[in-house]
């Protein structure tokens, strides 16, 4: 389960703060999730959580639109 879903179920305030922080982080890399993962040293081969990456891509798309 992605971190965001877990936070949403447990504590809405933490979820809102998490989304806000992730939006800021995505904006710092021009909404490019691949650049973010590259800076973190993660690639498709060693991605520990594919769902989290998909959630971030979806968030980036929503910010962009």
Oligomeric status? single chain
Computed CA radius of gyration, to the nearest angstrom: 12 Å
> Helix and strand succession?
HHHH
Distance between the termini: 26 Å
Strand content: under 5%
Q: Shape from CA axes?
A: globular
What is the arithmetic mean of pLDDT?
A: 87
Number of strands: 0
**Overall domain count:** 1
- Helix/sheet category: mainly alpha
Helix proportion? over 70%
Spans of at least 5 consecutive residues with low confidence? none
Major sheet: none
Describe this structure in words.
By secondary structure, the chain is mostly helical. The protein has one domain. It is 74% helix and 0% strand. The protein contains four helices and no strands. Helix 1 runs antiparallel to helix 2 and helix 2 crosses helix 4. It is globular and about 30 Å long. The relative contact order is 0.17. The mean pLDDT is 87.
List the helices and strands and how they pair.
Blueprint: H1 3-10, H2 12-28, H3 33-40, H4 50-64
